[in-house]
């Protein structure tokens, strides 16, 4: 028995070494990791699910003219090599900085990029995979046809896991899943879609309609977390929905440039329901641990005193055109601000690289009011039963 166990361990170690060398070859194509940094990782891998705030290039591989993509200038202007990668940022995004804080070089590569280059299993076993897709929602109906919705991201993870088991064995994968970090950030697009539908009808949603909206969102979110748990996931870092009524694209619709309080209330209500959901799941799913990153509270604190956070502008897009920089697209020929680290927003919807950096740091080990019930650092070091 001892001999067999030693052989099993040796085989696993050999497999990991092989995977590291293979992923190193992938390198910059899909966001490889520097092997020198592997020793300081707090988790063995990171798996990412969500929308454009976390997407690192999946949408680059989706067909269709209406698919939102950030594969053109000036996206990526501050990314190494000043190249657009599919990140909706002037540089790194939130997933990158969460991964950096956990000891990685950047976010794990995009699922569709890995599939295209036949490196899915090596990356999944050694770094992790990002399934996040710009435009995605908790509901399949949100921006349907132009993204990978949350439910399908989970399906893709399930197929990835099956390939991992076939390659490394169920024991290795089970241990990997239990120790890895599952980052989830989704819901903003559902808020935008719901508000747009009401605006199209020139009316406000009734309390019963909002209640029904929350109910289906929570049901779908619960299904996704429960399915991932069933596949072995135990550590969930959840980024809630921020004050969507304060992005430049929404502000510009107001003559004074003020936030849309109704949309912010919609997001805040969902965030409250999300807290209740996760507390309930943790109570009935043994070994499940989670940390909610309060994007809503952090962003509101930033708006209250931008200068204290190092910002000179908290209501306009750095890249775009027209009023609040949000009446023109962020593309070649657009106006781009000089000091990008002094802007909260990069384009009319998405945070700047600096916002992503400061946000991820707050979620990792920052002030206690921005994470609950534990922070991302504590979650990463959480010991499962």
UniProtKB/TrEMBL annotation:
The UniProt keywords, alphabetically, are: Hydrolase, Lipid degradation, Lipid metabolism
GO biological processes: lipid catabolic process
Q: Does the keyword Cell membrane apply?
A: no
Q: Which domain of life is it from?
A: Eukaryota
Gene3D superfamilies (UniProt xref): SGNH hydrolase (3.40.50.1110)
Q: Does the keyword Hydrolase apply?
A: yes
Q: Name one GO molecular function term.
A: hydrolase activity, acting on ester bonds
According to its UniProt record, what is one Pfam family this protein matches?
A: Lipase_GDSL
Q: Which family does it belong to?
A: Belongs to the 'GDSL' lipolytic enzyme family.
Protein's name according to its UniProt entry: GDSL esterase/lipase
Which species is this UniProt entry from?
Answer: Oryza meyeriana var. granulata
